[in-house]
Structures are given as structure tokens and as C-alpha cells.
Amino acid sequence: xxxxxxxxxxxxxxxxxxxxxxxxxxxxxxxxxxxxxxxxxxxxxxxxxxxxxxxxxxxxxxxxxxxxxxxxxxxxxxxxxxxxxxxx
Amino acid sequence: xxxxxxxxxxxxxxxxxxxxxxxxxxxxxxxxxxxxxxxxxxxxxxxxxxxxxxxxxxxxxxxxxxxxxxxxxxxxxxxxxxxxxxxxxxxxxxxxxxxxxxxxxxxxxxxxxxxxxxxxxxxxxxxxxxxxxxxxxxxxxxxxxxxxxxxxxxxxxxxxxxxxxxxxxxxxxxxxxxxxxxxxxxxxxxxxxxxxxxxxxxxxxxxxxxxxxxxxxxxxxxxxxxxxxxxxxxxxxxxxxxxxxxxxxxxxxxxxxxxxxxxxxxxxxxxxxxxxxxxxxxxxxxxxxxxxxxxxxxxxxxxxxxxxxxxxxxxxxxxxxxxxxxxxxxxxxxxxxxxxxxxxxxxxxxxxxxxxxxxxxxxxxxxxxx
Lengths: 88, 370
Fold this sequence. Notes:
The complex is a heterodimer of chains A (88) and B (370).
Chain A: E1 5-14, E2 19-24, E3 27-32, E4 46-50, E5 53-58, H1 60-72, H2 76-84
Antiparallel strand pairs in A: 1-2, 1-4, 2-3, 4-5
Chain B: H1 10-23, E1 28-34, H2 35-43, H3 46-49, E2 54-61, H4 69-79, E3 84-88, H5 102-107, E4 112-114, H6 118-127, E5 132-139, H7 144-156, E6 162-168, H8 171-180, E7 188-191, H9 193-199, H10 205-209, E8 215-217, H11 222-237, E9 243-245, H12 257-266, E10 267-269, E11 272-275, E12 279-282, E13 286-288, H13 297-300, H14 316-320, H15 352-369
Parallel strand pairs in B: 1-2, 1-7, 3-4, 3-5, 5-6, 7-8, 8-9
Antiparallel strand pairs in B: 10-13, 11-12
Helix pairs in contact in B: 1-11, 2-15, 7-12
């Protein structure tokens, strides 16, 4: 319930409503970045995503490490499938 | 030890467990608060790896597992209304109410939809202006800021047909209740990882100062958990009681200020909230405050609001407090299975019973026959 999946910010979609597009394993979805300061994030940054919201900024190494952990605990597929169902 | 063999870093895990064993043979009870940790512990048989003097107690950190029967009934009472599209995280679909679950209600024709995010629920509301869209909000502080930001968005966009049935809970009062519980003698806590990303580690500082117990915020993989157990045991043998952070890479002492601001803007604490198995805990539940009352499904709809006791055969309460292990429950694995759960600990893969049923029972059976 409390797991999060790492993604890379590829586009600032709507900064007034704090929406950015992130890429997770080639799948792109809009997420809300309202929990992060506006000047904190830029295209190319990695974030941890939970239920459609970026919870915290992480670096590339942490993103790779988090992916590995999700795989390791057998939760990657579940998190990824849920992420894919996000409505556009 | 069977499961840790499948783990890539099994050798390091084994060494850590040996180091833990060397430090003390004093019996110690350590509670992992987070359901994600419970899942990892069972998946990798970490209890079998730890020395026999160390017992892991599986705490109440699975929000689906602590949702009381009465609240499930209330949710269903809203979901079956013909004008309502009821939206929920998938995890909550199979939680048994007094008669049915949301899944049963959906099979009987109610418009109940699983969503990934509360924002998706808000989108459904915008796409269906003739309908009322209700979101079943549940979870600890990992999830509640997302609900709060969704409410702020709904207010900004002036969406009138969206509301939430709020069951958000907060971890600190639950920890206090556990520490005050006379039948529970714990020696330390593994603190939740992502909840702490939001609330920070500072809020746990009563655990060491007022109750004299160590707490280590932990990551989610087997090595994280073993390392955190090591840190707790080390504190105990060195007579230290501190709040330490093993998951430093994503957790800071002060938490996420923007997430906390959104929580304070939108929610207020209820006087009491009921937890399945644990009973009523003061100031442990959240609801929308007056300013956002228009989005409160509990005010919009007349829910029954009954308190319903857990089924007699079910021992989820004892299991959530760590007084009993899943396999000691009379109905475990017989009348109560993940397919037909009686208690909610059997519903979510983060619940101690389901995790144990899925991963642990084989090792226990092997032990018994050895």
C-alpha cells in the first residue's frame, strides 16, 4: 500500500496545476508534483511516485536502486501495472 | 532459511543475522509497524534467519487490515446508491463487511471502479457531471497528502459532484496506543519507510524520550530490514535509546513540508477512530475540516455508522498486537484464506495472515515435520 515507483520527469505539462509527465520503464503518464517545491524539479530529474503523486525527488542512482528493490521484493509488476492504469 | 536462499544478497543477509546473534541472547520483541515490511519479512523468511531470541511482531501498518467492518458497511451503503460511481484502490475491494464486500456489491450491479489515484477519481467526476463520484480514501501519511491535494484541486476547479469517504489514519497515536497497551511488551520498533518520507523522523522522538524504546526507520528489502534489526539490537546492548534512520536516502528528520501543509489545510483529527482488532484510538483518524465539508461523503450521505464487532472466530486483534501468530488463530488457513477471508489480516498481501499464508506456511510445516 505504501510502496512507490521511481520515474523520470520528461515534460512539464501544466505548472499551474502542478502536472508533469514522467517515464517509468518506457510508459509515460502525468503525475502531480504538488508535494515538491516548484524550483526543486526539472526535466530529467527522478522522483518517487505513489498513487499518481511525486512524493520526493531522488537521484539516478537511488532510482535504479529503488527499481532493484521493487524487483527484489516481488512488487515491481504490481506497482508498474497500477501506474499504467492512470487515466490521461 | 529456505527463502533467503533465493535472495541475491543472501550471503550478506546471513552474515548480518550472525552478527545480530553474537550481540545478545536476551529475548527481544521487535515490532515492524509497516505492512510493506511484513510482506518482505514473510517473503524472505527473515524470522527463520534471525536468532531464536529475537521475535518479530507484525504491527498494524496495513491500512486495509485495520479498516473496521462498520466502515466497510458504510462504504457499501454509499456505493450501492444509483446516482453514485464509487471509486477505490484495488486493495479495499475484498475487505469483508458484516454481510458483503465492495467486490460483492460490484458483482450485484453497483458501479464500483478501481482507480490508481484519487486524481483519477476526480477525472471520472469531471467526465460524468450527471453522477456523484465518491472516493474511498484510506491509508496512512504516505497516501493522505495525495487525497488532500486532490481535494484542493477539486476546490480550485469547483467540482461539485466529487466527495471522499475518509478513512485516513495517522501512525503516531497508534504507536502510542501500542506502547500504552499492558499486554504488549516491546523492545523496539522498525519505523515505516514512506510514511516517514512525509512525516519525518522527528515525530517519533517520544518513543525514545517518553517510553525509552529505540526506533529505526527502515527500507523495504531484506537487507534493509536486517540492518535495521541490527541497529535496534546494537542500541539495546549499548544501553542507548535513539531514533535512527536506516532509510536515509529518502527520509529526512522534518519530512515533506508541502505534503504536511496540504494535510493541515484540508484535514482535522477525529476525537476517536476505530481500528479493526485494536478498538477505538483517540485522535488517530482524519476527516475533512469545515472549510472542505462540501467534499465529505459522510455529510453528503446518511451512512449507517454502526460499530460492528469482529467475527468471534477471528483473532485479527491479537495478531495485529502481536500477541498471537497467524498460525495460532483457529480459523487460519481453514475457514479463513485469501480467497475467502474472515478477517482483514487475510485480505491484503501486507496483512500478517495473508503474507504468512502465501510465503511462510511452507517453512512452518517443514519445521514441524523436521
